[in-house]
């Protein structure tokens, strides 16, 4: 391999062209073109960015509307809507803070941000995921209580539950930021091998990381969905027997059935969309 130095300054000055193996490089400009080609998203990645960008815009607008409507209308601030607003805030954190950085990292294959971002992005992402699933559990519990014990008043304060959800979510997400750090990354390209850039990775072993992801999947996915499924089945059973009771208004039963079906649909959509992510994290 041959290379000559150029007097022009560049943002790639920290990278040594001699690290490239099996590629003819005449000037620093050629080396920079190689790096730019490696960083620029290919056709598949461009569609990936477009699809995620569209989803991000739709998600931000939808969740922001939920937050604005609930927070500005006192009549809307019941227990269910407050938890839904809490769920929307968690989604906004992922969409605005975590998703853009994750897309840049996945497309360019290197982490461009500081060590603070390395620790905080994963922490905020995991916290928001825990908040989302625990909010769904709380909503399901509230619907179950309203259907199973309709004459009993709520026994908890919604705002206290929301605060508890965030504290518990932050506690469950705390191990990863402690061990995350920036490390040099080695990338293998089709026609050459080079070493440049950084990655945000854990300092513990791969075996420990797999076990950690497995535990995280159990607490943030399997157990909550198990609880929700049991409660949904019990609600369906209760409503089925209530429909045979002539003392219960049929219109009220119909409204409750629609609410349960909608809740089960939201939970199923959440499970389907998150299952591949958890399987990928365990396999990775």
UniProtKB/TrEMBL annotation:
Record membrane topology: Multi-pass membrane protein
Keywords on record: G-protein coupled receptor, Membrane, Receptor, Transducer, Transmembrane, Transmembrane helix
GO molecular function list: G protein-coupled receptor activity
Cellular location(s): Membrane
Residue ranges of the TM segments: 47-70, 82-103, 123-144, 156-173, 218-239, 260-280
One Pfam family from the record: 7tm_1
Entry-linked InterPro entries: GPCR_Rhodpsn, GPCR_Rhodpsn_7TM
Residue ranges occupied by any G-protein coupled receptors family 1 profile domain in the UniProt entry: 62-284
GO cellular component, one term: plasma membrane
Lineage top rank: taxon: Eukaryota
PANTHER family reported for this sequence: LEUCOKININ RECEPTOR-RELATED, OPSIN RH2
Recorded family membership: Belongs to the G-protein coupled receptor 1 family.
Protein name: G-protein coupled receptors family 1 profile domain-containing protein
């Amino acid at each position: 391999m041959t290379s000559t130095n150029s007097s022009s300054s560049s943002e790639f000055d920290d990278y040594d062209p001699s690290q490239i193996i099996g590629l003819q490089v005449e000037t620093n400009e050629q080396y920079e073109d190689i790096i730019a080609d490696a960083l620029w998203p290919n056709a598949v990645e461009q569609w990936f960015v477009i699809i995620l960008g569209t989803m991000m815009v739709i998600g931000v607008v939808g969740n922001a509307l939920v937050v604005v409507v609930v927070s500005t209308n006192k009549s809307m601030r019941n227990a269910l809507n407050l938890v839904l607003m809490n769920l929307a805030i968690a989604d906004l954190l992922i969409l605005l803070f975590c998703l853009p950085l994750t897309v840049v990292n996945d497309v360019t294959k290197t982490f461009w941000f500081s060590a603070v971002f390395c620790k905080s992005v994963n922490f905020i992402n995991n916290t928001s995921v825990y908040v989302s699933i625990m909010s769904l559990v709380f909503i399901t519990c509230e619907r179950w209580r309203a259907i199973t014990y309709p004459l009993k008043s709520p026994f908890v304060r919604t705002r206290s539950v929301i605060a508890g959800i965030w504290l518990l979510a932050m506690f469950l997400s705390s191990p990863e930021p402690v061990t995350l750090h920036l490390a040099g990354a080695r990338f293998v390209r089709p026609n050459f091998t080079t070493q440049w850039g950084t990655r945000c990775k854990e300092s513990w072993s791969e075996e420990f990381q797999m076990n950690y992801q497995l535990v995280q999947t159990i607490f943030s996915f399997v157990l909550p969905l198990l609880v929700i499924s049991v409660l949904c089945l019990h609600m369906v059973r209760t409503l089925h027997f209530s429909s045979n009771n002539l003392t219960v208004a049929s219109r009220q039963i119909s409204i409750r059935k629609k609410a349960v079906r909608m809740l089960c649909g939201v939970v199923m959509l959440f499970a389907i969309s998150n299952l591949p992510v958890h399987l990928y994290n365990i396999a990775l």
